[in-house]
Amino acid sequence: MRIKSQKDFFAGLLYMGIGIAFAWGATNYNIGDGARMGPGYFPLLLGIVLAVIGAIVMIRAMVVETADGEPIGQWAWKPLVLIILANFVFGILLGGMPSLGIPAMGLIAAIFGLTFLSALAGSEFKFIEVLILAIVLAVGSWAAFVWGLNLQFQVWPSFISG
């Protein structure tokens, strides 16, 4: 069979790979059964579902004809690097990095750092829109995790909260 859509084929392959990895990793935990689910039950089912979805997408990529074969484009390096970097910055701002002398800045600063750095990955950057998004995400995260779930972690930098 010939691949008729490269994008769909490799997307399906990625789903299958992630699904198989999750299902395989879940076997290291107690699976249990439907009535008494163990910690590996949900990752196993999630992995199986992802692998099945990937297989369906791959089969469709070899059966359904597309106009130009939907070739895979070039790697988008800027968004890839900035999104990964934004996640690292979030973790460092949230928990700090004592080995480098970086103190924990708290949830609010971490969300602002994540939002602004991720927004730079796009094709256009509008400061006011990103600021509004960061405020909404920070307030929503505080409401959900600190107020709603009563999780105990640093919200503000220590020089503000004392």
From TrEMBL:
Q: Name the species this protein comes from.
A: Ottowia oryzae
Q: Does the keyword Membrane apply?
A: yes
| UniProt KW keywords | Membrane, Transmembrane, Transmembrane helix
What this protein is called in its record is: DUF1468 domain-containing protein
Pfam families of this UniProt entry?
TctB
TM region(s), chain numbering: 9-29, 41-63, 75-94, 100-120, 127-149
The keyword Manganese appears for this protein:
no
Q: Where is the DUF1468 domain?
A: 10-153
